[in-house]
Backbone:
């Protein structure tokens, strides 16, 4: 442990200029935030002409009726225009708030509100919690019209929206309530670790955050998910029999098999699994069951079980923890930096002893451009995992010695095509746009890979 702290101290010393140099961090954040926004706008402009194509890629031509493809192109075009406007609008709002000292105002407002109920500045953790929620609430208000437009205009226009105005407001209030109920204890412990551990907070904070993530794995399906959706046991029948048989052959620790009422809000479909290593739960959207055949849903689940078989969730969690550790290792230099707070309009009295929550929030803002680069790397890793899970499905018959699985690859291909058609997903995608935004390969990339995997499997069998 001493070796770790020694290395972290070296990092802090290398960044010691942050504590003394009067760097204009606000200008830096403004420049790089707008750079990221303009780059994302450029990607949308690159992608936009592809929505004018009148025919799908040759490999998909037989699967799209002309009318359906035209609808998917119009849907993609409308989403792109909305994304371009909303991206610029959100950045403009954030830029205005930043320029006029919204962060400093929020801290002062939090202190003022607490003073009204008898809490002084010595209650820094309490003030930090009020500060975070005040910032979240005020900054989210300007984007509410965008959420409403996306749901009731964009999604409604293309036949996907099932959300009523009452459900929209209810979900919004539930989300805010959950943020308070779960966020307040999390922030309290998060900030207490800093107070308790001092400059040696990194390993202790890492331990707490890992424990919190594992706790959420248990709480999400039992407490959080039921607040928004109804999970019911998948009815007996062909689909349930197929999935249970598949899980049994792979020794997948299936505990519950759920159907979720995704159609309550949208016509889009999905399937996923979650849980602890010894107890897994599979959730299938009712829209997926309605839109695809049982053997195709089985193929989708075979792909998902491929992620489990190759420990992709665990690997992603490890990568995430390495990223978190790197961020926390850089933070100590910014934790005790009065010039940092002064550059964001905080008064001298507050900047002289920077509140941990304020320093961490500003530090996160500074890291924004680097996080964009990290997201590209994470997308590349996730896309690699998606190809691996597709290959798992193709080679499943050799693994379980079951000839009934011999067409799993073609089944998965049909399921992917069906989901893209039903969801009006874009099938013409610019490579740079995809690399930046997509955690999954494009449909044509996956279909081409599935064919290659099948050829490779047959060669091995010869």
Residues:
């Amino acid at each position: 442990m001493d070796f770790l702290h020694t290395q972290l101290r070296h990092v802090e010393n290398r960044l010691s200029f942050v504590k003394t140099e009067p760097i204009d961090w606000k200008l830096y954040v403004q420049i790089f935030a707008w750079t990221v926004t303009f780059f994302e706008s450029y990607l949308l402009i690159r992608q936009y002409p592809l929505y004018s194509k009148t025919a799908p890629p040759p490999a998909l031509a037989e699967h799209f009726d002309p009318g359906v493809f035209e609808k998917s192109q119009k849907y993609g075009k409308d989403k792109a225009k909305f994304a371009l406007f909303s991206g610029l609008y959100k950045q403009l709002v954030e830029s205005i708030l930043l320029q006029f000292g919204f962060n400093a105002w929020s801290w002062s407002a939090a202190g003022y509100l607490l003073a009204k109920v008898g809490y002084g500045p010595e209650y820094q953790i309490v003030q930090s919690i009020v500060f975070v929620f005040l910032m979240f609430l005020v900054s989210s208000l300007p984007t509410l019209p965008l959420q409403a437009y996306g749901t009731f205009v964009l999604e409604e226009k293309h036949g996907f929206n099932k959300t009523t105005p009452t459900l929209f407001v209810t979900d919004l209030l539930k989300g805010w309530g959950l943020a308070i109920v779960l966020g307040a204890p999390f922030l309290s412990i998060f900030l207490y670790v800093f107070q308790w551990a001092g400059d040696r907070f990194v390993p202790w904070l890492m331990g707490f955050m890992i424990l919190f993530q594992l706790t959420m794995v248990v709480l999400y399906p039992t407490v959080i998910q039921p607040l928004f959706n109804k999970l019911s046991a998948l009815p007996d029948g062909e689909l349930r029999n197929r999935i249970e048989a598949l899980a049994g052959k792979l020794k997948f620790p299936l505990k519950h098999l759920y159907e979720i009422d995704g159609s309550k809000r949208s016509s889009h479909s999905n399937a996923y699994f979650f849980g602890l290593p010894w107890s897994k739960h599979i959730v299938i959207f009712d829209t997926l069951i309605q839109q695809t055949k049982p053997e195709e849903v089985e193929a989708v689940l075979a792909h998902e079980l491929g992620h489990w078989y190759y420990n992709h969730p665990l690997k992603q969690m490890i990568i995430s923890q390495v990223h978190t550790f790197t961020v926390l290792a850089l933070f100590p230099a910014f934790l005790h930096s009065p010039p940092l707070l002064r550059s964001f309009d905080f008064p001298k009295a507050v900047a002289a002893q920077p509140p941990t929550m304020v320093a961490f929030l500003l530090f996160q803002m500074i890291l924004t451009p680097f996080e964009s680069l990290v997201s590209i790397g994470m997308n590349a890793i996730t896309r690699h995992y998606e190809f691996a899970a597709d290959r798992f499905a193709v080679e499943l018959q050799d693994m379980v010695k079951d000839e009934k699985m011999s067409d799993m690859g073609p089944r998965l291909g049909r399921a992917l095509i069906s989901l893209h058609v039903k969801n009006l997903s874009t099938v013409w995608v610019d490579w740079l746009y995809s690399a930046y935004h997509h955690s999954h390969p494009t449909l044509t990339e996956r279909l081409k890979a599935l064919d290659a995997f099948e050829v490779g499997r047959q060669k091995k069998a010869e």
